[in-house]
Amino acid sequence: MLDSRRVVYISLMIAMGSAIHLIEGALLPLPIPGIKPGLANIVTLLALYLYGLKEGMLVALMRVLIGSFIGGIFLSPGFFLALSGSIASTLIMAFLLRQTKCFSMVGVSIAGAVAHNTGQLIAAAIILENRAVIFYLPILLITGIPAGFLTGYLLQCLLKRSDSSTILNGFIRR
Asked: What is the pLDDT of residues 25-69, one digit of tens each?
């Protein structure tokens, strides 16, 4: 059973992730389809780090659902691409955080970005019934890897400062 404090923090992470997801889509439209900075993934990675797979997946899925409802793309191909990418990246990041000791937060985030791009392209290949979309992967990785680096680095900096941060003090008391 989740205690009330944990429910509140997870709800706040869902709200933060959804807000960042929407802001990214609205304010940072890039000319190449499928490319976004992925800053909302900071919140998913934080949930994975603090609570584990179940809560991290909840944050990732709810962020995509809420963002797609508000953004007007629920059940569209874009929704399924975002959903598949989020599931793939969350699973990979959870595995690396819990089962390995050789990856930093930056490395985990980069692996999550690569998994996100790969998951999206697999979903696109299924939706379009065309495997040729996989050739788009190098283009996505050119921006996905630096975005994963930035996301991981920002979270790593946030966690280093968490001892004095009033925001994270409540999150870290598990």
From this structure: 776 565 566 667 788 888 999 999 888 899 999 999 999 899 888
- Measured in residues, the chain has a length of 174
Vertex 26: Cα angle to 57 and 71 (nearest 5): 55
Cα separation, 150 vs 24, whole angstroms: 15
The CATH number given to whatever domain includes residue 114 is: 1.10.1760
Are 38 and 147 contacting, i.e. CB atoms less than 8 angstroms apart?
yes
Residue-number span of the structural domain to which 56 is assigned: 4-172
Buried b (16+ CB within 10 A) or exposed e, 51-75: bebebbbbbbbbbbbbbbeebebee
Domain count for the chain: 1
pTM score: 0.82
